[in-house]
Amino acid sequence: MKVKTIIAKVLLLGVGLVPSQLLAQTSLPLSENLINFNSSQGEIFLVESQARQDYIPLSLQFETQDNLAFCGVASIVMVLNALSIPAPTATEWVRYNRFTQDNFFDNPNTENVISKETVSRQGMTLQELGGLLESYPLDVEVYHGGEVSLEEFRQRIVDNLQQENNFVLVNYLRSSIGQQRGGHISPIAAYHEESDRFLILDVSRYKYPPVWVKAEELWNATNTIDSTSEKTRGFVLISSQ
Q1: pLDDT in tens, 104-118
Q2: Which one, of 8, 32, 12, lies nearest residue 22 by Cα?
Q3: The whole model's pTM is what?
Q4: From 3, 33, 39, 104, which residue has the greatest number of CB atoms within 10 Å?
């Protein structure tokens, strides 16, 4: 094993940067343009990253989506818990307060955006993602892929990843980056400047691992039309009020 790889593993494990839930076995192979986080190169990228403030808080609150349509819900729940937004009681743990994919919709304001039943059938659009986040005490900025340049896309997300207590959720077309198959939502956790890649903490852990994807490929994947909204996908910047 190369010295650089050994150093990366020591650093990652030493500060708890690789929770086991992120490295679960997945069923689908990755295309060559993507780099598996659970690889020597993927680990080195995280160690070398100068924009990874979101990685630890998100990994500590990681969620696998409860069903095929709940990628947005799982991603929002991770952010709410990472920002320590006051949470309702989680019935699974009797008297403990924590956001879950089940109690997320207990907030009556979410119904004004989209119902749990509708999300369960068809997922959510970028605008609905932003609206659901805004039903909680959060500052939310929604950007459609067709409205920002590659340079603005990269810079806004990198700036966010270099700061504490704010997060990025990205809505992209899987097939555009070589995955199966439709629209998807997950958090971005880090950026590696030399390779110009973002780390996506994919919430469909039964399907794909976290991956490093080229900034331009991810931007192109957000600049695709969502058939429900008939607008381009995009990304959302979130911070507590």
Answers
A1: 999 999 999 999 999
A2: 12
A3: 0.91
A4: 104
